[in-house]
Every structure is written in C-alpha cells, then in structure tokens.
Amino acid sequence: MRCIVRASSLPARIASSLQRAGRPVRPGALCCQTPPSIRASAVCTGVVMYQHIKVPAGEKITVNQDFSLNVPDNPIIPYIEGDGTGFDITPVMIKVVDAAVAKAYAGKRKISWMEIYAGEKSTKVYGPDVWLPEETLQVLKDYVVSIKGPLTTPVGGGIRSLNVALRQELDLYVCLRPVRYFKGVPSPVKEPEKTDMVIFRENSEDIYAGIEFEAESEKAKKLIKILQDEFGVKKIRFPETSGIGVKPVSREGTERLVRKAIQYAIDNDKPSVTIVHKGNIMKFTEGGFRDWAYALAQKEFGAELIDGGPWCKFKNPKTGKEIVVKDAIADAFLQQILLRPAEYSVIATLNLNGDYVSDALAAQVGGIGIAPGANLSDSVAMFEATHGTAPKYAGKDYVNPGSEILSAEMMLRHMGWTEAADLIIASMEKSILSKKVTYDFARLLEGATQVSCSGFGQVMIDNM
C-alpha cells in the first residue's frame, strides 16, 4: 500500500532511511512508498501517514473515558464533499461555519478542514472500485467528529449503500434527526410551528442490516427449506419465488439507543420519550424493542408505572420536572404527528420506522432540504445532509444548502461551540424571513427573491 508521509515532519533518521531506500523525500511534500520498517519507526514518532489525505495544521478532538469531548481551539474536522450536489453545498457549508466561528470567537477559534474521500470522488482518487477507502474509515475513528455531504449508492455488487456501510463500519448506532420549524418556510400543514421533535433512529439493526437473499437463489431456497423443515413455518405463501430477509433486533441494540434518547430528554428538558414500533404484529422484534425500552426506563432511570402501565414516568434529576415514557404503534403515530404533533418531543424507534418518520416529519416543516442529521456512536459523531445527491442539479449552484448547514450547526453544538451554533440558527431564521431563498422555497413564497446555493450562503453570512 502506498503510504503518504508529511516529509517536513519526519525525523532526519527516517528521512535518511527513505532516501537510502530510493524514495526521495522533499521538504513539505506528501510523497513516498514506505517500507514496513520505516513505517513502524514513523508510527513510533507520532507521524500520521495516509495515502491521499492531507492533514492540515491543527489538533485532534479527543474523547474522555465518560465520552465527553476535549475540543481544542483549532480542531481538525474531516469532511466528505459528497456526490452530486455535494459539490455545491459542502463549500457553502464550510464558508458559513467559518464565518459563524470567526464572529462568535473573534478569531480565537478556527476549524481546520480536512477533506477525506468516499463515493464517486473516492473512485477518482483511489481507483474505479474503491468507494469507501480504509483510511477514510480510520480517519473518521481517529478524529471523532466529522461531516459529510450526500453519497450515491454504487451500482452493481459490493457495497449496497455507502451511508449504511459507514454506519455499520463505525457502529454509529444512533441516527439523530431534529425536526423544527423555521418561521417563513412554506409548509403543507396549517400549524407547522407545533412540530418540534427529535428522532432517535436505531441505525445498526432491523432489516437495514442487509441480511436478505434474492428470490429463487440457492441461498433463499435453502433458508426457506430450513424454516419449513426445522421450524414448521407454513406461512410463506409462495416459497418457490420468494426473496427472503432477516430482521435482527436485540436487547443490547435497543437499550443503548433508548438510553441515549432518555438522556437527551433529561439534558434538554423534554417532557416525553415515545417508543414507536409495530409490536402488535412483529411481537418478538418490534414488540421486543418496546418491552426492552420500558424495562430500561424503569431499571436505569427509576421510572414508575402510570395506572398499571405500560406507560411510565420519572422526575428529571436536573429540573425536577416529570418525563413520561410512552409508546405508539407506528401507523397510528404517523397519523398523530399530523393531528397532534405537540404531544410528542423525543422519539425512539427502529431503523425502518425511523426512516419513514424522519422524512414524514421533515415534510411537515418544509422538506428535507433543510432537515439536518447526525450518526452517533458512544465516541464518534458524523453529521450529514439528509437529502439525496440530486445529480441533475450537480454543479449548477442551485440547490438549498440548508440541510448541511444545519447539520454543521448540530456539529458545533456537539463540540460545545454553542455561540457559533446559535449564530447559525439566528441567521437561518432571519435569512428565510428576508425571502432571499433558493428555488425550492422561492417557488412557494409570494414576493420571494430566488438566490443560488452560494448566494443563500452569503445571505446567511450577511445576516450574522
């Protein structure tokens, strides 16, 4: 593997060894194929080597044993530009974030952005079949906090979804999707301001685990036969032509997600946590999710049953206010968020349900063009635009950069840089009310002035 070394940071001993090995080292250059013995020496001296990633000046964010962050004043933040319109929105996001940080901290803090690669750009940098390089995964682990644009789904075999692959490889078991309304955004509902929820979607299990077999394949036939012969399953209506999938849902996977959701409700003074499931039909998977969630609330947070249960409640240890833990059947919940959205605040749900619920709620407040998101493990956080790549608009400076900008706002808040995050929220509100907006809003707002993707970024900067 071709390793890249920052030559200017190499000790003379190692640089000399590289030259003797016939690999020239130029000061300041990113170069050289490194023999194992040299590579080991470089690692011992703290030199970081990557094949195509250039590490800027700055410091790493680190994680404490309690999973809190140590954030320096000049953190290095990896970013993936993304495919399609990622080319347009990511530079705008960086420009807006840099402006907010500069204004909030008067130049005392600054992000050092480090580009890493995945998706179509990766295939151009690393080779035609390299959609998700190993060093990209390693950087995401090492640098803790990152942000990415939308990624395309590769055509053909191998990786089925780059987004799913990133979540699984890094065990980003929480998909966090806050949904709120910005005044002035066109919405299909009468009172969009009543929609204010945060969705905790389980990211690692459910049918998104990707355990499925094509209809009429040998594996599908074999699995169906085992189910019929060894488990007495008779409910597969057309076994000869059925594709088949497996839906894993575990106690551990449920507990770690629900724990995060309840802790979020405590930290952010939210009145309820709603467990959304289809356990009335899928009793041992989604029903298990519901039961394990209630059990965790009682065991770890001291929740007490309300009128015999299953709903329960406990006092927020930080505020003394009551937090209710309740559940809702998924299809009924999709109705209730339209009819009575104010009754819900924090949502904990499974992977597939979370996918549906996130986009349905985003539509109520103006669409996924301004819907932010994050994928979290206990230590790693990757923030992302939640919409697709929209390739027909790529490179046209046309689309709404709001989703990635608001995802960056979440990132700043996660880092503890709340002053810069607050500036972005205030500017977003002011910019939308000014009606200087991208095409998706301009076509629905009377008296609007349509601006480009980069133009909206500049409007936001001007409104800080």
Automatic annotation (TrEMBL):
GO terms for biological process: glyoxylate cycle; tricarboxylic acid cycle. The modification N6-succinyllysine is found at residue 148. One of its GO terms (molecular function) is magnesium ion binding. This is Isocitrate dehydrogenase [NADP]. It catalyses: D-threo-isocitrate + NADP(+) = 2-oxoglutarate + CO2 + NADPH. Its EC number is 1.1.1.42. Its cofactor is Mg(2+); Mn(2+). Residues 76-460 form the Isopropylmalate dehydrogenase-like domain. It is an enzyme of class 1 (oxidoreductase). Keywords: Glyoxylate bypass, Magnesium, Manganese, Metal-binding, NADP, Oxidoreductase, Tricarboxylic acid cycle. NADP(+) binds at residues 152, 387-393, 400, 439, 443. Mg(2+) binds at residue 355. The modification N6-acetyllysine is found at residue 190. The record marks 208, 278 as: Critical for catalysis. It comes from the Bacteria. Binds 1 Mg(2+) or Mn(2+) ion per subunit. Belongs to the isocitrate and isopropylmalate dehydrogenases family. The keyword Ribonucleoprotein does not apply. D-threo-isocitrate binds at residues 161, 163, 167, 177, 201. InterPro entries: IsoCit/isopropylmalate_DH_CS, Isocitrate_DH_NADP_dimer_prok, IsoPropMal-DH-like_dom. The modification Phosphoserine is found at residue 161. SUPFAM superfamilies: Isocitrate/Isopropylmalate dehydrogenase-like. It comes from Ralstonia solanacearum (strain Po82).
